[in-house]
Amino acid sequence: MGMDEGEEGVDHGGVQQEFFRIAISEVMNPDYGMFIIDEQSKMAWFRPCSLEPMYKFELVGLLFSLAIYNGLTLPVNFPLAFYRKLQGLQVTTPRHIEDGWPVLTKGLQSLLDWSEGDVGDVFARTYEFTAEGPGLNITVDMQKTGRTDPWVPAHLNPEYCCRYCISEEFKRVFKPEEASELPETADPNGFANGAESEGVAAAADEASTNGSPEKPDPTAVVPEPAMVTNANRKQYVSDYIFWLTDKSIRPQFEAFAYTFFTCISPRAPGILNVRDFKRLVEGTQDISIDDLQAITSYDGGYTWDHPTIRDFWATARDFSPGQIRLLLEFVTACDRIPATGMGSVSFSVQRNGEGDERLPTSLTCYGRLLLPAYSCGEVLREKLCLAIENCKGFGVP
Predict the structure, then answer these.
(1) pLDDT tens readout for residues 259-284
(2) Most buried in the list 32, 37, 346, 369, measured by CB within 10 Å?
(3) Distance (Å, rounded) from C-alpha 334 to C-alpha 261?
């Protein structure tokens, strides 16, 4: 690796860590249409009705599997519901989703706890599920589409039905005759391992058996959805959580999970509790400067009491939590502490000449910060902040 450019083919973990960090960070970008980010919690979730083919979610699952197998932490932030699903546990109560959707959870819990009259008169909430789709908001009447019902109208183009699990509202945006213009998938049906989403095949067969699909009458009056009342509010909350964490994203999650267990036994996550499983994958972003200083080594003429080193740690202690994560990422290619603790982090500071015009650099392969000897702490802070805030990717010196 890198031999043609003069770099020794040795990786002490930094290169592979940075590769996975960059790859996963790009995949999680909401602009690519595979995942969305909750505005309050900043946690990621699968985008309902994503236009991306299912094989891409399989590739993401494989990346996760390889990273975990190699003991790497990933720059992701998923709610505990994600890890419960990977463990085969059900997500059924507001408590199970409170970290990922705090505002929604507060609203659902208030609905359950309300005791001053009927909730229908106060909350005026309809029995519908809403979510952010690709370019539009999705709304589904949960009483008309049950948990076991296919979530694809039978009158749609059969090929389109098999390729995507889509809602009635989604159909209004993309006409059936435009389905051929959508991207092709690795599997003809676009689902993991060739398996079709629940009920989709039946819907497609029915449409093809009946001949040309009959288009709905645009002038037909659509019945208004029922209101949530004291009598049905518990079932409403249960159904909403089910649609949020299961039915609306089932094809995407199943494609991801199919390859997630390529390098990991499906039984392995069950050994851990949900929070430890999340920590294993994501690490922790709570970084103690005292703990980091305790495991740091010095080279090239630096010692723990060198004036530049004293200025360095004084500057680091003044950093915000975000800047501390950037510093750790700059040196180790990872902004998190692995589940095994700070003792697993390789962090060293090496003298790299002197001069106030020079910028700090790093060798992420070895977790080594190349820090010039500056004339004062103010210059060190300026150059260090400039380096850690404007750095991405890796190259060969």
Answers:
(1) 999 999 988 998 999 999 999 999 99
(2) 369
(3) 24
